[in-house]
Amino acid sequence: MTKRALFVVIFCSFAFSICPQLLGQATGSLAGTVSDKAGAVVSGGTVKITSRDTGAAREAKTDNSGHYLIPLLPVSYYTIRVEAQGFQTTEQKDIRLQVDEHREVDFALNPASVSTSVEVSVGQVITSEQVADLPLNGRDFVQLATLIPGTTQETNPNSFFTSAASSEVATRGSYSLSVGGSRAQSTDWLLDGNDNNELTAGGISILPSIDAIQEFKVLTYNYPAEWGTRAGPTVLVTTKSGTNNFHGSLFEFFRNTKLDARSYFASTREQFKLNQFGGALGGPLQKDKTFFFVDYQAKRQRRGRPFNGLVPTPAMLTGDYTLDPLSVARPGTFDGTTNADGFPDINSPYTFAPFQCDGSGNPIAPNPDGSQNLGVSCNKIPSAMFDPAVNPSVDPSGLAMMKLYPQPNIINTNTVTNFSDVPVRRLNEGEFDVKLDHTFSSKDSAFARFSYDQATSFIPGGSPGFAEANAFGSSQNITNHGRNVAISETHIFSDRNLNQFTAGYNRIFNHILSFGNGTCEAAKIGILGADLNSKCPNAPAGVIAQSTKDCISCGLSSTLMNNYWALGDRGFAPFQGGTNVFSISDSFDMIRGKHHIRVGAGFRDQQMNVETNAFQDGFFINFGLTGDATSDLLLGQLGGGIHDQTFFGATTGRRWKLFRPFADDEWRVTPDLTFN
C-alpha cells in the first residue's frame, strides 16, 4: 500500500468513526485582470497563488480578456505571482482572503527587464488576532455580528435568546441575531460550512472558542444562491487550521466578587466568579502537506442573581389577614378601597361578603355551607375552613402549598416586596476542536474537524424551594450536549473546472429538570390528578412511564399567584430536545470565458426528538376571588386549572429532509460590470 493510500484510509477512518455521515467550510475566490501599462489586456499569462500559511499553490491562465479566476480557496493570506512572455514577473504579497469573499486583484505588467515584488495594503480587515483582543463579554463570538450594518441583538433580559429563566438556548450566552427585522430563530448558523443549528428552539449547537475562529461573516442580503436555507441571515464561522509554523496560546480571563460593587437591586454584594481558561496549538505534521489544530476552552461561572418578591406572612398561614404582607393594616372598610400598599380587605368566596369575627376579634366558626353567623366584619379566616388539623374534611393542599413559601426577610415599600435573596447561578462548560488538513497533491486537498461542547447549568428561581419569581422560572438544571463534525474534499480537474464535496453531522441535546421533578410533591400534599406517572417512586397510580431517563409528571403543580411569587415546577420539564442533522453537498465550478458558473446541491436530513409536557403536573390560575391570591390558595379556591399532553405521550419525533439544488452564473460583462 502506498503512503498516499494509507493516509487516505487513516483520514477517512478518523472522519467516519466520529459519525456515519459527514459539510465543508466556506471558501472564497481571487480574480482580476492582467494588462500592460498602456491598458491592453494580456492573455495566456500564468497566475500562481500560494498560501502564506501552508504553502499550498494553485495556478490559472488569463483568458482572451486578460481575466483570471481561481475559486474554492481557503481563508488565508496569499501571494499572487503573474508571469507572461515579454513582461516582467510581478507579484503581490499578503493578500488577505476572507470567508466567502470574492476579491479582485488586478495587475499592470511592465515590459521585461527585471523581476519586481510589490507589497500591498490589505485594507481594513478584522484579523483573528484582533478578534481575540476585542472586548467581548464572556468571549461570545456572536457579539461580533453586531459590527455588520443592520445587524442587532436582543437586549430584553426576559427574551428566550438572552437570559430568560426557562431558556435552554441561552444558558451558555446570548445568541439572538436579527438582520433587517428577521426573527432571532431564523438565523442559519454554519461552522466550517456545516449545519450548527439547534432545531427545537432556533439556537446554536457549538459555541467555538474565540481562539479557534479564523473568520466570521454574516450574510445579509443578495448573497449567492448556495446560501439562504432560512429566512434570516446566514452566519459563516470558519475555524483555524495549522500552518507550517507551530503556533500556540494559553489564556485565562477572570472576574471576582471582590472586584465588583453591589448591584442596585441587591441587598448585599452578590457573588460573581468567572474563570475562562484554555489554549490552542497548531502546526505541521508534514511540511506543506499535513497540518493540525487543536483548542480547548473551559468556563466556570458562579453569579449571584438578586431576587425580590412578595410572599405570605406567618400570620396569613393562620388565616389572619388583618395586616398586608408589608405589615400595614388593611382598610377595614370592606367597600373595595385599598390601603397605601394597594391591598384591599378580603371577602369570603362562599358569601362574597366579609368574614365575621366575634366581639373579641376571633373569627366565627363557619356553617356547613361556608357561611358565618353575623358578627363584626374582619380580615380573619376561620381555621376550620383550611386547616385539616381543626377540620379533617377540608382540602389540605392549600395550607400545605402556603407552607412552601419562604418567610419574609426584608420589607421594601417602594417595590412592594417583603423577600429578598441572592442565590447563585452556576455554569460549567467545556469545549474543544480538533482539525486536520491535508494536501494530497496540487489537485486534491481535504480537511476533517470534530467539535465538542458540553455545558451544565443551575438556574435558581429565587427561593431555596418551590417559590419562584415567575411560573416558568422555577429552580432548574439544564444540560447542553453538542457535537459537530465536518469533512471536505476539493478536487481540481483543471484551472477551469473544480469540484468541492462536503459532508457533516451536527447534534445538540438539551435536557431540563425542574426543582421538584421526581418528588411527586403534588401527590404528597393532596392535589388530586396532578401527578400521573405510576412508574415514579412513591407516585400514585396513573399512566405508565413515558421516558427511560426522566420521571414524567411527578412534581408540584405550577401555580400563578398574581402579585405574589408563583409556586411549583415550571412547565415543559422534564424536557429533552435532541437535534440530529446529517448534511451532504457538492458544488462544481466552471469557468467559461467571462462566466463563472457554479452548480450543485445541498441535502440535510433533519431529526428532532422532543420529550416535553406543557403542564406535566397541572397548571393553576388564581383569579383573586377573595381579594388576595394567597387567601384563595389557602381556601383551595383557585379560578382554573389545566393538565395537558401527558395523557397522549411525552415524546414526539419529527423527521424532514431539505434538498436545495442551485445554479449561479457570475457574468463579467466588462471589467466594471458584473451580473449575477
List the topology elements.
Layout: H1 3-18, E1 28-36, E2 46-51, E3 57-61, E4 67-73, E5 76-83, E6 90-97, E7 102-104, E8 107-109, E9 116-119, H2 128-133, E10 151-152, E11 178-179, E12 188-191, E13 194-195, E14 197-198, E15 203-204, E16 213-219, E17 234-239, E18 247-255, E19 272-286, E20 290-304, E21 307-309, E22 355-357, E23 376-378, H3 397-402, E24 419-421, E25 424-439, E26 444-459, E27 467-468, E28 476-494, E29 497-514, H4 521-525, E30 558-559, E31 566-567, E32 575-592, E33 595-611, E34 619-621, H5 629-634, E35 640-642, E36 651-670, E37 673-675
Parallel strand pairs: 1-7, 1-8, 6-9, 12-17, 30-34
Antiparallel strand pairs: 1-4, 2-3, 2-5, 5-6, 10-11, 12-13, 14-15, 16-17, 18-19, 19-20, 20-25, 21-24, 22-23, 25-26, 26-28, 27-31, 28-29, 29-32, 32-33, 33-36, 34-35, 36-37
3D architecture notes:
This protein is mainly beta. The chain has a domain at 25-127: Sandwich (Immunoglobulin-like), CATH 2.60.40. Helix content is 6%, strand content 40%. The chain is built from 5 helices and 37 strands. It has an 11-stranded antiparallel sheet, covered by helices on one side. Strands 3-2-5-6-9 form a 5-stranded mixed sheet, with no helix packed on it. Strands 1, 4, 7 and 8 form a 4-stranded mixed sheet that branches.
